Automatic annotation (TrEMBL):
This is UspA domain-containing protein. One of its GO terms (molecular function) is phosphorelay sensor kinase activity. It comes from the Bacteria. GO terms for cellular component: plasma membrane. InterPro entries: Histidine_kinase_KdpD, Rossmann-like_a/b/a_fold, UspA. Pfam families: Usp (PF00582). Residues 9-127 form the UspA domain. PANTHER family: SENSOR PROTEIN KDPD (PTHR45569:SF1).
Length: 228
């Protein structure tokens, strides 16, 4: 039942990548303002048990965000052969959605998958829903090619520091995604992980994290992130 005082329901559509966190925060802000239920949706053509470690990491994070929000619910549509807009429209109808939030990057990516305009298709399919296209910074330094695709990794306490490992050992302290700088033979880059229900990005130098201090990704990389 929709208990929103404005009779609204919010749907955030997320695709794998760091920008999903900002989209969810935008959705939470709108949902809180309108006292509306929030749904977080992701869609994948592969079945869940065939998803790689990086995708599973993001899914785990999205579930955490949903659990942290009193009226939020995470929706996973895997093994989907239908066009993305059809799946979004179905979820929107089933949950009486009135507003949909899409990231510009996810929007572009889904258009590549569907080979058509997802926005035009959604407008035709569910004309009663307001669409919000949020401009977001792209994948971590993806435009400049300074970081490789993220891979599953772990931090293991080693004295006062943490050692980066790519093997799941018994004594791991944190599990996350490591984004390695390109053109280097050393494990330098950014390690992204969850700590106390918050997402942190810490600097890795030669496979070592000296302190769990959050790095301001956008400031450090001079990315345009004007949407708050």
């Amino acid at each position: 039942m929709n208990n929103s005082v404005y009779n609204e329901s919010i749907l955030v559509c997320v695709y794998y990548g760091p920008n999903s966190e900002r989209l969810i925060k935008r959705g939470c802000a709108i949902a809180n303002l309108m006292k509306a239920p929030l749904y977080i949706l992701t869609i994948d053509p592969k079945p869940f048990d065939e998803l790689d470690a990086e995708k599973l990491f993001y899914i785990e994070q999205w579930k955490e965000y949903a659990h942290a929000h009193a009226t939020a619910q995470f929706v996973m549509k895997d093994n989907e052969s239908r066009p993305v807009y059809k799946v979004i429209a179905e979820v929107a109808r089933d949950n009486n959605i009135t507003q949909i939030i899409l990231g510009q990057t996810a929007h572009s990516r889904w258009e590549q998958i569907t080979k058509g305009s997802i926005i035009n298709s959604l407008v035709r399919e569910i004309p009663f829903v307001d669409l919000h296209i949020v401009s977001v910074a792209r994948y971590i330094r993806d435009e400049e090619g300074l970081y490789e695709k993220g891979i599953r990794a772990y931090l293991i306490k080693d004295g006062e520091k943490y050692k980066l490992s790519f093997n799941h050992e018994k004594q791991i302290d944190f599990e996350g995604i490591f984004f390695k700088e390109v053109d280097t033979d050393f494990d330098n880059g950014i390690f992204r992980f969850m700590k106390d229900a918050a997402t942190l990005h810490v600097q890795v130098i030669d496979g070592i994290v000296t302190e769990l201090t959050n790095v301001d990704i956008h400031a450090a990389m001079n990315l345009d992130d004007s949407v708050k």
